[in-house]
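Please, structure for the following, as tokens.
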Amino acid sequence: CKLRRTEQALGRGQQRHVQRDHVALGQQGLERNRMQAELARCRFSHAKALFSLGKRERAGSLLESARRLFASEGNRISVALTKLTKARFYLESDQLKEAEKEADAALRAFTEGGNLRYELLARWLKGEIRLKAGSAKRAETIFRETLRRAAGQSRQIEYLCLLGLGKTRGEEKFYLEAV
């Protein structure tokens, strides 16, 4: 692939510059062609990547842009996903009240929309928020209930709940069961 050969020929810093340029060009093309849903998904993914790199302000801006685009498309589940992602951002930034508010809004939308997998993911995140807030007993209850509901539905959420239980109980058996 021509792009791969180009990236291999460039230094590491130049690679990042080329990758940023590709993202920017891709988003510009989507805007120009009025491909709102695709642009929203692109911004959503870009926001998550930027957050993981510690670029929180830019990530928040892109996440809000994605949310507005999803809303303009009438995509309630994706709007709720942006709220759930924002809750995770807040959780990692120790803004627990804001995290809980966003997680609650996402949970309501997933429940109303009948999206069980995302509903369970939101419930797991509420357990993580409670745990970080120092409410280990409440977190344990949430993890156990979510684990029960996730059984046979989503191995990923079962795994997350088992890890949560391991953190609340400090017991290795939950970690072992997760793997």
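The two ends are 37 Å apart (CA to CA). Residues 12-32 form the longest helix (21 residues).
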